[in-house]
Amino acid sequence: MTKFSKVLLVFVTAILSAAGLANAQQQDLRVGLMDAEPGVVRGKDQLSGRDIDIWSAIANDTGLRVTYVFVKSPAALLAALDESKVDVAGWTSTTAAKYLLTVTILPTAEALVVPTTDNRTYRGLDDIRNLKLATLKGTAYADYLKKSGITGISEFNALPEVLKAVTSGEANAAMFSGIIAGYMEKQGNLPGLQVMRSYQPALSRPVVAAFPKNGAENYDRINASIKKLHADGTMDKIKAKYGL
After folding, report:
1. Which of 73, 87, 137, 198 is a plausible cystine mate for 155, CB 3.0–4.6 Å?
2. CA dist 46 to 43, 62, 66, 94, Å?
3. Which domains does the chain have, with CATH numbers?
4. Is pTM, for the whole model, over 0.70?
């Protein structure tokens, strides 16, 4: 091999190595998300929503190229992670030890929704014990109210029915997801109703991203990014945008 050939070989090898590194850095991170508002909002020509904003911020911070896999339920999201259909469950409240769990992305809890004409202050369980409450059937909110000894509970299959019960006077207040309640109020979709900001939720829990145990490299990178986005105020801006 001539001296020129050797130099050319070294040059080509270096180019290929650089290309391989660039491809590795640009590898897609498949993020599993629940296909529901306010996490994912489908417009005519674009995707938006709380979770899209969060993962776009993470992608911008880390340089990772993010693609999305949408599912219909929390169970389906974790199943997709277990079956390696996604690299990360991007929005979950699981505490399962079999996953690598990031720091809290955002907290989630119940909200108390009352008529705008209700000027009373509600802070906790003792303040709502004698109310007629509407909530969703088969949820943690219904279970909590029952276990707390509250008897005036009406359970419904769908959120519009819950809200209608309050606006019609059938119930004094509604209890359901604070994330959904805050978003609906922000969008002007709680006519005649208000989220009671003085109420201190009892069912607060962290929402995290979950990685498989063999995904430590991506986990470390994303976990550091989430911490950074909290520190620089990005997460607070996203929370405010969606009424959290």
Report:
1. 137
2. 5, 23, 15, 29
3. 27-107+206-241 (3.40.190.10), 110-195 (3.40.190.10)
4. yes
